[in-house]
Amino acid sequence: MPLTDESPKMSLVNTVTGEGREVQFNPEQFTQSIAVNYAKLQVVGLSHTRKHYINTDDVKFDLEIGNNVLAAGDGGISLLARLLEDHDFLYSLTHPRRADSIARGGPPRVMFIWPNFISLTCVLMNLTFTYSQFNKEGTPTAWRAKITLEEIRDTFVSMEDIRQLGTQRSNAATATSNDTTDTVDPATVG
Questions:
Q1: Are the CB atoms for 147 and 63 separated by under 8 Å?
Q2: In this predicted structure, what is the pLDDT of residue 135?
């Protein structure tokens, strides 16, 4: 089923500042991956290795989003400014906030929200921009960003939690960011 302009859109929210952005277009696809880690014990003479559970990696999402002034309609200056602001917003999620000490450093946590499906506190692990369609001043009028987000948690998540909540574990979205607590309500984004 094709998405319309009224379709709910994926968004990212900086949990430190509360600033958020909806994507211009929902990704057509994305991957979600998770790994389970086991210690492999070698027992002499046994026909197989013994596996002892260590932990489960945090869930990881790889997706690609885009922004295009021409696809947005009139191609005016305000749309170009929005494209550049969206670019800078994503880029800012890879850097720490200005702080008095290194101990308070680190990029902000990010709420990854896909309405009715995903609401997780994550960190942006990788960001790659590809620029295309430049105006006569040389400013890109379109870009694509490959993003890797990885969930970050401060509490234990059990099999029962996953069965009950799935990927909507940040419903009143409380995230602890270094030594401060930040709260972002996913319902207020957009």
A1: yes
A2: 85
Evaluate the CA torsion angle 148, 61, 115, 110 in order and state its sign.
negative
Whether residue 2 lies inside any domain: the answer is no
Q: Which of 152-156, 165-169, 171-175 has the lowest mean pLDDT?
A: 171-175
Residue 116 contacts residue 53 (beta carbons within 8 Å): no
First to last CA, the chain: 22
- The answer to whether residues 47 and 28 touch, using CB atoms and an 8 Å cutoff, is no
**Structural contact between residues 170 and 111, judged by C-beta atoms closer than 8 angstroms:** yes
3-state secondary structure of 50: strand
**Region 147-173: what's the mean pLDDT?**
83
Residues 6+ apart with CB under 8 A from 17: 108
Q: What is the DSSP string of 71-87?
A: GGSS--HHHHHHHHHHH
* SS3 (DSSP) at 70: helix
Convert the pLDDT of each residue in 103-144 to its tens digit.
667 899 999 999 989 999 999 999 999 998 888 888 888 899
Flag whether 4 is in a domain: no
Cross-strand partners of 148: 62, 126
- Does residue 158 lie within any of the structural domains? yes
What is the total count of domains within the chain? 1
Q: Tell me whether residue 1 is in a domain.
A: no
Q: Give the residue numbers spanning the domain of 174.
A: 11-188
Q: How far apart are CA 63 and CA 174, in angstroms?
A: 24
